[in-house]
Amino acid sequence: MAKPVPPELHSIFDLRPALRNLRWQMDAVAWVQLISVLAVFVVFMVWPLLLVSYRAITYEGAPSAYWFGFILSDPFYWPLRLTFHPAFPFIALLGVSGQLFQMAGNTLIVGAVDFGVIPNTLIVATLTTALSSTVGFLMAFIFARYRFLGSSVLRIALLIPLLSTPFVGAIGLKRMITAQGVLNNLFAGVMPFRVEITGLAAMVLVQTLLFYPIVFLNAYTALINIDPTEEEQAENLGASGFRLFRTVTLPLATPGLEAGALLVFILSLEDLGTPIIFAGTSAEKVLTYQIWKRFSPSGSISEEAMALSLILLAISIIIFVAIRKYVSLRRYAMLSKGGAWHPRSSKLSWTTTVGVYILILGTLFVATLPHTGVLLLAFAGQWGSSLLPDWFTLNNFVRVLNGPNFVRYIENSFIYSTAATIIIVILGVSAAYLVSRKKVVGMGSLDTLVTLPIAIPGIVIAAGLFLQFLASPISPLVSAAPLLIISYTIRKFPFTVRAAFSGLEQTDKAMDEAAVVLGASRTRTFFTIIVPLVLLNVLAGGMLSFIYSMSEVSTSILIGGANPPTAPWTYGMYNTLYGLGGGVFAAAAMGVLLMLLQFVALTAANVILRRRATALLSIS
Amino acid sequence: MVKIEARSVSKRYGNVRALDGVSLQIEDGELFTVLGPSGCGKTTFLRTIAGFELVDSGKIFFDKTDVTMMPANKRNAGMVFQNYALWPHMTVFQNVAYGLKARKVPKNDVKSRVERMLALVKLEGMGDRSPHQLSGGQQQRVALARALVINPQVLLLDEPLSNLDAKLRLEMRTEIKRIQREMGITTVYVTHDQEEAMSISDRIAVMHQGKVVQVDSPRDLYFKPQTQFVSEFIGQGTFLRGTVDSKEETYYLVKVGELTFRAMPADPDLQYSKGETVLLTIRPESFRLDASAENVMLCLITQVSFLGKSQRVLAELGEEHVVIEADPATQLVAGQRLKVSVEPAKTLMIKAT
User: Fold this and answer.
1) The complex's ipTM?
2) Are residues A170 and A278 in contact, defined by beta-carbon separation less than 8 angstroms?
3) Distance, CA of A529 to CA of A515 (rounded, Å)
4) CB contact under 8 A, A524 and B20
5) What residue ranges do the domains of chain B occupy?
């Protein structure tokens, strides 16, 4: 290496080299790309969020911490008070209502405890993350390290929960875990009492069952990407068993594990679907639900909701930035040379296989409870408190597909999601190209900006868009279409941009340089070399953006609710459940159709990308 | 065809000086090699000529034209990348035709020119193949054809042979030289392999830590290295540290410990004064295994490696290490004392660093 030289002081203040470099790197097309991406994110994400923040920190027009004082002193949000006693243990925590376990008649009620809105939100997210990580990592380790009969089939089966969002899953799971639910009927003979899981516990359960595959996928990828020689070296030096796992395997897999866990934490924070389904229990006392409830369909906005939004936003962004930084600091560049290797895996003995099967099938049984519930409901003709529906029918689907309202909801969703996906693909490829190929100061910030939507709870984006555009020509009161397309574009942007970026990073820069040096303009290079080379990645990423737009809940319900005729699919489900629609069976049927669509799209994305698909659910 | 000139070109990445005032003149039609260890700045230099890197200061000329700020796609340079960078979504024909299409060459001309170029690199009839159906050597030829078909003013080669196996490397080396001669194109060749550089180049620039340390013909680089770095990098050698005693007509007398050597200054223009510390460098094959030449040493053999056509002897002379190439028939073993000698003309004196 050339010898390092100390930075010259004057060069730090001299902007000319930077400007010269900018002129050199950027051409007209790159400028158009950069300005389009920035414009969309500034106008539709940064500005609305600033507006939310501004409203949250003002009271009657003047800067003030009034709303935060109000929230923190209201026991509803923050009931925890430390009281000092003269006697041991000197301090006591007040304000917790309800109990975690409570017998009512012959029913054990689990989870009706309530710590207040803000503590509830954090507790649920923390527990969900811990449980999802434990289950996800355990499963990842088993599948990465052992071979047994049917392991590849079971590995795919464990990903089934990805086919549903909490909103759909909660509808199904609720039917399974109430006092008169399927599980209690199933185990009525062996259990001395009935168990009802409700409130915060139900929320943690729904989220854990639906989110653990994210950790599973990330950790599995990390584990099979560990160079086997690194573990063999450790064994060669005398480490084995748990010591090997603790000192080499786990540290090498940690970045993957943390990336998955972070995503779960944020998805849990922003989940609005589960509290809506479990409304009426302590599950509704979380930030998302409380913000949502403070919006009226006419468009009036409570300032309290703005302050709550800012609190929720701050929590998720702080966690996101902190962990992302922490993870990237500890990302171990794999020192080994390239080349294919066979991940270390050993064959299990007969008896251990049986044990592993019991563990995996048990996990699968619990993990598919939400989907089983939705399916049963969707095909139910009538269902009282018996184990299974009284009779099965296709009528729910017939009603959904024949009803003019239902079809309109589905059509709306298709149109908005398609429009959003087209914008996402165009801008996403542009952003990924700029970040990957233009060595200009600040491109790293562009990367953060377009990945950030992962960390922004949907309800907060919805609040910001509502606030900013309520009185504009694209007001949600006139039509939900413009704001929903915008919201889907912003919220589902990261899936495509990450996919395109990873495609570009895997494509040698010499590929585009070879074209440029042969006389092709940068525009020509972009369309004839770069786009074809990352097309598969972009298609798969676009597919995910599309499918997650179709199943998006927070903004769909809030913005769609302002103008129901133009509302999308998930609002339709909500309205079917709680409005003048067709009740839980029809809503479940809509949920099943949504799952089916997700199944098709995810399978297609998987086929296109094969093993690379796993990278798409990673935030890193 | 053009002459390339770099005038005190500098480029830094953060606190690392990749290019530190590099000035070079590459003559019209010359095969010019930039040689150096990895990280010496040779690839950065090539990329500034190609137009991929913007220099911090200095200028680059193609003949009289200042191309310093000219975009890469306007420079009319052909480049072959280390990993060839063949586009997997195009056939061989499409790969080669790309530059012509970008130049809006009429379709019929494209076809004939591509076919002529494929013939030149001995790939007739392979146009419909995909790059991944070709062997490494064939991919290399496609990359060469793609770079040459546009009739570039300069040809830039970035470690083009490093991905080939040893045998193919020898073959392609001759090929590149043949094609370059046939087209008479000004060529800049970047490599870290000194043998490759010696065999192919008209002239070689040796780079070290972002600086050009010596520009010379392969022969002069080998026999008249100006610095220890060049001497070590180009072939092996023995280095003896000594002090100048006195000057004769052509030679200097240099004291190394108890011994006195008669040595030839590598750079005849440099003047050395009495008492100055210098390095004597001797190539392994310059030693005679007897006392028939003037500079005689008695060393202790520490290791003998049999190489077939010769044997390499590592020995000690006091504190210093000596590398000797000897006739394979001679019986030599470690621990044996060996008297060797070198002619003064082959005992080169360079500045000590």
Assistant:
1) 0.83
2) yes
3) 8
4) no
5) 4-224, 236-351
